[in-house]
Design a protein that fits this description.
The protein is of the alpha/beta class. It has seven helices and six strands. α1 packs across α2 and α3 packs parallel to α4. The structure holds 3-methylbut-3-enyl trihydrogen diphosphate (2 copies) and magnesium ion (MG).
Length: about 240
């Protein structure tokens, strides 16, 4: 049987140290095919595995994947329940392979409202993969940038840190992403130009790449294109170009 020739991707000169991905368009992908929205979410989860593998191969060190926002509870109950079930199932199915591929799984967001089963599966996946170092994947599930900043402020107040000692570094250290490099590239699929409460603090100087593809169709080629586009951006951080 002939095997498809593996495509080669020339090495990238400038690689973002942390990529955020707003995985959008599952519902429209399904609708386009006359399928229920949950089929789109299922296809989205399957694609997640492929994109993480691509991330490992392309050499991206940290990826944050927006899977469920604090606003997504507004969706119909069947969809919310379906998304919870899908996360539990996929953790069950995918974690061993991700572990073998050297992926370190982390969670960002508020775990409290999730079911005990889901919480324990998330914690087990984090524990199993905690020493892996090929790629760190933060799963943003029940995550919202405003919720994250609110939780950080609460914690800072609890620790009774004096106001004059509160610096940007202190705030950084109280976010879910403490200790990780700042997000340098944010990719949003499905052609939407919105931040939708994703990494509000961390993304202050992120470059954006909007892909027209729905999330289930976003592949290694498109990931590579986003990374190439990042390499061509003139990042000035408020200064002037050199
Ligand atoms: C993204 O796809 C997945 C989640 C937000 C859970 P959507 O479900 O938002 O898909 P569209 O935007 O309706 O097409
Ligand atoms: C953002 O997508 C959240 C995730 C991808 C998890 P949404 O589809 O929820 O965002 P809006 O509602 O279009 O802004
Ligand atoms: Mg959407």
């Amino acid at each position: 049987m002939s095997k498809a020739v593996e495509k080669t991707y020339p090495p990238l000169l400038k690689l973002p140290q942390h990529v955020g991905i707003i995985m959008d368009g599952n519902g429209r992908w399904a609708r386009q095919r006359g399928m229920p929205r949950l089929r789109g979410h299922r296809a989205g989860v399957e694609n997640l595995r492929r994109v993480l593998q691509a991330g490992v191969e392309l050499g991206v060190p940290v990826v944050t994947l927006y899977a469920f926002s604090t606003e997504n509870w507004r969706r119909p109950e069947v969809e919310v329940r379906g998304l919870m079930r899908l996360l539990a199932e996929s953790l069950d199915k995918e974690v061993d392979e991700l572990h073998r591929n050297g992926v370190q799984l982390r969670h960002i967001g508020d775990l409290a409202p999730l079911s005990d089963i889901l919480k324990s599966r998330i914690q087990a996946a984090i524990e199993l993969t905690k020493n892996n170092n090929r790629l760190v994947a933060n799963i943003a599930f029940n995550y919202g940038g405003r919720q994250e900043i609110t939780a950080a402020v609460r914690q800072i107040v609890r620790e009774q840190i004096p106001p004059e000692d509160i610096t940007e570094d202190v705030i950084n250290a109280h976010l879910y992403t403490a200790g990780q490099p700042p997000v340098e590239l944010i990719i949003r699929t499905s052609g939407e130009f919105r931040v939708s409460n994703f990494l509000l603090w961390q993304g202050a100087y992120a470059e954006y790449y909007i892909s027209p593809l729905y999330w289930p169709d976003f592949d290694k080629d498109e990931f590579y294109k986003a990374l190439q586009a990042f390499g061509q951006r003139d990042r000035r951080f408020g200064g002037v170009s050199g």
